[in-house]
Amino acid sequence: MCWHCDNPGKTRADYLTEEVRPLIRKYGWMVQTVERGIVQPGFAYTVGLTDAGLPELVVTGLRERRSGQLLNYFAQQVVRSGPPEPGEVLPAEVGWPSLEVVPLSSPSAHLLTAVLLYGENFRALQLVYEDEHGNWPWDREFRGGTGGQPVLGARGRG
């Protein structure tokens, strides 16, 4: 269940104060999930990497738990080694498919919790994954489940 559903009557400001900021202070970022709709897949993104001068990370079309695992893993990598470049393909690692880095042209259109903290002036990178057959969302053969894997930016260098 979502925080807002569990806390009726509380505001977005309460959410930032009671949930978001404490998690960022403790871990350096938090993962915000957005539940899937009837035909559109859910997505998840980090909030807090901006405080370290880094882009937020986004993934679409994965289940909530898997999204959190992927974003937490790569957020640690970004904090340790710096962000990947737009257009860079990250080779498959144990448990993860290959990923291509796609910059979001308008992160504020999708990442509401980040907008509440930072305004509209922050960067975000989407980690786009290949399917089990090595196809990408822009390939006709891509199979990504209900709603697929929306790509929220333009491929290539940012």
Automatic annotation (TrEMBL):
Which InterPro entries is this protein grouped with?
DUF4262 (IPR025358)
Protein name (record)? DUF4262 domain-containing protein
- Recorded source organism is Amycolatopsis japonica
